[in-house]
Fold this sequence. Notes:
elongated
Amino acid sequence: MGLTLLLCFMVLLPSLCYSQDTYVSSRATYYGSPDCLGTPTGACGYNEYGRTVNGGQVSGVSRLYRNGTGCGACYQVRCKEPLCSDEGVKVVVTDYGEGDNTDFILSVRAYAKLASPYTAEQLFARGVVNVEYKRIPCQYPAYNLVFKVHEHSKYPVYLALVPLYQAGVNDIIAVEVWQEDCKQWRGMRKAYGAVWDMPNPPSGALDLRFQVSGSAGVKWILLKSVISSEWKAGAIYDTAVQLT
C-alpha cells in the first residue's frame, strides 16, 4: 500500500492509480449550455455522445485529461460545502477545460447534483466549490464497447475512429489495423482526445486490435472484421466486447 501511494504522489495524478479507494481534494465549477447537458464540441471528439452520455452528467477536466487518454473516464465527485449532498455526482470526462484551480468543469446537470435539496441556486451562485473525487468504474450495462467512424472521416482515404461506452476503469492506449498485403499491424495515430486516425487505411473489412490499460494490467483485444469494407462517416460498429 505504501508503494502504491508513493507512486501516485510521484506522478501527481492519484486518480490514475486503478485501485484508488481514497478521495482527492480539489475544486469544481460549471459551464453553461442551452439544455443543461454536455457540449457536442468537446475536446474528446465525442460529438453528440459527449452531450448526452450519462444523462448529460459530464465534465471537462484539465490535468486528468492526460492528452486525451483520460477521455471517457468516470469519477465520483462530492462537494465539501454545507450546501452539498453527501453522495455527490458520477460524471464522465468528455472535454478539456481549465478553471480557477479546478480539476472539474461540470455540466449544469452534473453541478446541480452536488447540491442538497432546494440549495442548487445557492450553489450555482458560489460558482466554484471545494470537492473531493476518485476514479470509479464506468458502467454501461445495456451497451458493448463500440467504435464510431468519426464524422471527419472520408472514405476510402482517411479513417478516424472513436471508442464509445468504455466501461470499467480502463484506458485505451493504442489502436492498430491489420494490413493484409504486408502481413503486419499498422498503428493508428492518436489524433486528439479519444480520436484515433489513419490515412489510406487498408481496403476490405478491417481487423482491429486495441491495447487496454486498467486494473487488470495491460492487454491487447483483437476484433476480427469489426469495421465494414464500406465504412462511412458516422457509422457505429459494435465490438461484442464489454470492458470490465
